[in-house]
Amino acid sequence: MIYYYLTLLFVFTFVLVQADVKTNxxxxxxxxxxISIPDIPQTTSNDVATECAYYNSEYxxxxxxWPTIWDIATSNNMNTSQEFQDLYNSIDWASAPNxxxxxASATGGLDMTGYDTVNDPDCWWSSSQCTKPKHQGCNADIxxxxxxxxxxxxxxxxxxxSHNAFYEFLQQNNQQASMFYIGxxxxxxxxxxxxGVKDGHHIAGHTxxxxxxxxxxxxxxxxxLYYTAKAIKYxxxxxxxxxxxxxxxxxxRVRWVASQLGFTAILWNLDTDDWAAGTTPGVxxxxxxxxxxxxxTMGSNGSFVNSGNIVLSxxxxxxxxxxxxxxxxxxxxxxxxxxxxxxxxxxxHPYVEQVITFPNFDQKVNENASTATGSGxxxxxxxxxxxxxxxxxxxxxxxxxILFMTIAFVMI
Length: 412
Ligand SMILES: [Zn+2]
Prior knowledge:
The protein is of the alpha/beta class.
């Protein structure tokens, strides 16, 4: 019986050590609950040229320690760094789903030749918009806010250097959103990322280089996720447990790798197509306005009486941010609530760091305006995040470990 106990102790310790490797991303100078941003023209101006002038910050980047900006995150020999090797070797790759790396098509899309698109065995979103994994060990995607009459507000591709006026608008409206930040942008525009955390937005990852994730190897997928989280942690002091794949390109192989880090994907069920206006044939600003209008109509025509949505939009440039500003009053009229995804999913701790707590949905919609701003620290909320894997499930792992050991003692 003592061997049984020792085995349990060993396994329990091993789990703790494993989780520790994955949570110790980097050191940071930032206390995410006490962020201050210097008053420089780049952080205060609403003129794009002024905002987007390069600046030096205290968040210096030693190029040897990071992937090349905008290249796949294994670049600059990051795949051979000790830090990445340790992470890679901590994962039981033998348990990974046996799914092929996809190929990009000649036109820059995805080549689905040979894939069983009818049965969609790998829950490949790009093929079928599947979000419920079919393989073991994968966190299911979040795809809509469950609360009726609720607009899940999300913006991809930040932090954008020209977002001051947009973030000002959100702040004035006491409005939080889920912001999906690209790792390369975070290192380029650290004060932009800090503003997102300071304003109480829900920050999530959006990969390092914005490639289609199913076309990357396991090692590349891991590096894209890891170094994005590391960049966000380095600058803002928080490590996001949620992320969004570029173009929604995710399958069970990518989900499994993300799940090893304790990450859960947030997709969407309504797409404004805002980024495409003027750059994609057939998509004009009027097209995007009509998309917004259709989604607004859905707020009052019964489409969302039983559940809410998650809407994909972008902070990629002033045009996309302006679409959101222009339509915001009408969205507010048509929907009962507009919230970030952490709040609508009752995810009180969307980051590894427990110092930031998000209100649950009921708290958020009932709280008065004066308590809704600031660092996002709201006392009283204690619900665990939805991702039930190594990092986010740590308190559960500890409890289960203690329970097992107690049982073992009783049996001895
Ligand atoms: Zn994107």
